[in-house]
């Protein structure tokens, strides 16, 4: 077994899980990673006493794959308070736990966010989805989420003030055109689990998987240029002969014949500011309904103190679309922050921006899982990555395992 050369392209979550599963079966795979670190889209930088995730993202504790691969206790997860602070012009109000305890939403906030009927509908949906398996959710016919919400009978008030800003920040698209399957899945996860970040940042998640690897070698700064048959051509000009290859990146990047077969990605801009003190002072997401540059905000040190060790508060701001130059964008965002908080724009000290051009795959046909046969493209080349299923941590992990199983299966047939 040891002599079989299995290469994995990409050290994101899917590549790391594929390696872990191959190790469990006795193999010693080699990961080829273009960048200088593991984690792919899930990384945390340490800058001037702040921890900055590459884009605002959370782990949902109800993800089945998170329970399988992560020691949630050892991550020292810090939970968000369920619900959201809605910034509506100069006013702000809190909607507590709408997806787990909708009947507890307090009357006053509800009157601004939705109707009494919305509260009942929220409750019914919560009950329905909790009982529905993830596979069943992804086997439903798909309609755009905005249509689904209308057809379910939610009012325009709650769609515009809660669902739109909340789910835009998750789907990373403005109009809720994302499939109702993803809506149901995410809603169910929020109904069952907590949104959380590891105490010391999202980068702790891939690090925890890497620590479980003992026989896998990772070559950093090793970008794959092209794969042809069993040969891997590196950007450096070197070539490697493989026995099996798992491509844990969108494969059109490394296989000419697949170019043009994948939809463009969804992007997001994540800006970080520091402020003397959080103006929210609670571990909650802040939403800006309507037409703003800013979609959502969070003071990360309200969620986990370790995100700031220099005494200032760290504000993470997500912007979905902008044609502005970076300096114009910073000014415009500071002005919006002033308008919702009353804190003078100049007090929001800009730290850095992450322009994430590939944040989520833009998929029409979302899946929860695929049979092993579907990730095999030749006898030697297999696919992994969230783009095969749906854009989530859960999907990336599932896809890594499926690819590893397919490789193992191929050996069972040839030996
Ligand atoms: C801003 C943002 C917010 C998100 N929010 C959430 C959330 O709240 N909840 C959730 O569940 N999910 C969220 N996600 C999605 C989640 O992060 C991804 O689904 C997951 O990390 C994808 O892992 P992956 O292994 O499929 O791909 P990637 O992480 O993209 O890994 C691919 C790896 O391959 C490497 N690579 C690329 N090209 C080459 C090459 N030619 N040669 C060698 N290596 C190469 C890359 O450097 C990278 O390390 C979010 C993502 C982003 C960016």
Automatic annotation (TrEMBL):
Q: Which Pfam families match?
A: Amino_oxidase (PF01593)
Q: Which InterPro entries match?
A: Amino_oxidase, FAD/NAD-bd_sf
Q: Could you state a single Gene Ontology molecular function term?
A: oxidoreductase activity
Domain Amine oxidase intervals: 13-408
Q: Which domain of life is it from?
A: Bacteria
PANTHER family, per this entry? AMINE OXIDASE
What is the protein name given in its UniProt record?
FAD-dependent oxidoreductase
């Amino acid at each position: 077994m040891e002599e079989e050369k299995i290469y994995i392209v990409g050290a994101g979550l899917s590549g790391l899980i594929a390696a872990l599963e191959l190790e469990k079966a006795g193999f010693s795979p080699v990961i080829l990673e273009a960048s200088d670190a593991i984690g792919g889209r899930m990384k945390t930088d340490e800058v001037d006493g702040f921890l900055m995730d590459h884009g605002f993202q959370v782990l949902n504790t109800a993800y089945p794959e998170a329970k399988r691969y992560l020691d949630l206790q050892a991550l020292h997860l810090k939970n968000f308070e369920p619900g959201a602070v809605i910034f509506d012009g100069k006013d702000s109000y809190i909607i507590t736990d709408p997806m787990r305890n909708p009947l507890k939403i307090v009357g006053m906030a509800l009157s601004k966010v939705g109707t009494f009927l919305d509260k009942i509908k929220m409750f019914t949906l919560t009950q329905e989805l909790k009982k529905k398996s993830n596979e069943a959710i992804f086997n439903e016919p798909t309609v755009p989420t905005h249509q689904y919400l209308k057809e379910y009978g939610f009012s325009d008030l709650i769609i515009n003030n809660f669902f739109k800003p909340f789910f835009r920040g998750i789907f990373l698209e403005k109009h809720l055109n994302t499939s109702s399957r993803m809506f149901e899945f995410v809603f169910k996860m929020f109904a069952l689990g907590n949104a959380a970040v590891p105490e010391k940042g999202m980068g702790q998640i891939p690090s925890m998987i890497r620590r479980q690897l003992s026989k896998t070698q990772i070559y950093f700064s090793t970008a794959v240029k092209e794969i042809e048959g069993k040969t891997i051509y590196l950007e450096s000009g070197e070539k490697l002969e493989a026995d099996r290859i798992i491509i844990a990146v969108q494969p059109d990047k490394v296989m000419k014949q697949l170019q043009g077969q994948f939809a463009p990605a969804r992007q997001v801009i994540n800006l970080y500011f520091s402020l003397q003190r959080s103006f929210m002072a609670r571990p909650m997401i802040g939403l800006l309904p309507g037409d703003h540059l800013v979609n959502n905000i969070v003071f990360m040190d309200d969620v986990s103190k370790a995100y700031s060790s220099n005494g200032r508060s760290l504000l993470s701001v997500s912007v979905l679309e902008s044609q502005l130059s970076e300096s114009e964008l910073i000014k415009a965002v500071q002005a919006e922050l002033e308008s919702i908080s009353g804190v003078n724009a100049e007090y929001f000290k800009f730290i850095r921006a992450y322009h994430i051009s590939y944040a989520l795959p833009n998929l029409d046909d979302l899946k929860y899982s695929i049979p092993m046969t579907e990730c095999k493209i030749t006898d030697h080349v297999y696919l992994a990555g969230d783009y095969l299923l749906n854009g989530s941590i859960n999907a990336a992990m599932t896809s890594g395992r499926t690819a590893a199983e397919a490789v193992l299966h191929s050996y069972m047939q040839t030996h």
